[in-house]
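REVIEWER CHECKLIST
Item 1: Sequence provided? yes
Item 2: Single chain? yes
Item 3: Sequence as submitted:
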Amino acid sequence: RRVLFRSPERKGLVLSIHGMGGNIGDACAPLVIGALLTVLTWREIVMINVVPGVFMAIMILAFLGTLRIAKATTGNDFSKDEGRKQSFAKYVQGLKSLVTDRGVNMLLIGSAFRNMTQSALLTFLPVYLAYEMGYSPWAVGIWMFALQLAGFTAAPIAGHLSDKMGPRRVVMSSLGMSGVVLLGMAFAGKTHGFVLLIALLGFFLYAVRAVLQAWMLDSAPKNMGGTAIGVMFGVQALGAAVAPGLGGLIADTYGLITAFYFMAITIIIANRSEEHTSELQSHLNLVCRLLLEKK
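Item 4: Structure as written out by the authors:
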């Protein structure tokens, strides 16, 4: 947050770099789990997985205990922004404007459908590799690592481009290409082309996570950035919770490969939602310019 205040024009890059820490864990976990599955049972691995969770919880509590909340000073702009508060009535007013903003709502819908794609992918990709293509746990871990590594590489690139070109172009192109790659995987089926497309999909699909957050911060009302990101995470969690059940129902009825058609549909819907977001914001900017010209 401190860096965002000091470099508001570089939101995309800052948030992308921030998210790369989580991407490292997402990338390393499949490799570690795949290797452990060659010598341990899944029950033993679940028990072992408790250890890093407890360790990180202790570390977070320890670091939070060292934080001190300082009063705002007049020395720099960051302190002024940190110290600025709003009343509960103003917060409620800002929340109403947030939830009634059509552009924000379309952005939330697109973000939810994108997370549906991601959640379904993480659910059905390892299952397809293991049961349909006959890959070992170690090999599945390697390809899941490739998926996340590509996203790790793409994050700062997408963040930088969003700061230079605007989030719309980056989000629209990344989601569009994700849909194309998913359709390619569905058509490829049990071929080498399927696995070769995995890393390409990770590059495009994971590139826009931080860019969507930066776009939300730009779209949200003033002093409602934290709430807007919180609402976005909540909507994303809802989409992620629903997708595996829907995808599983489709896969059990029509075959596992059809889950990838389901993912392609969800990402296309996400793309269309973000397109409507940009159109609404363009119309709003035009109205604002006309009003300013009249004044």
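Item 5: Key structural point noted by reviewer: DSSP finds twelve helices and no strands in the chain.
Item 6: Recommendation: ____
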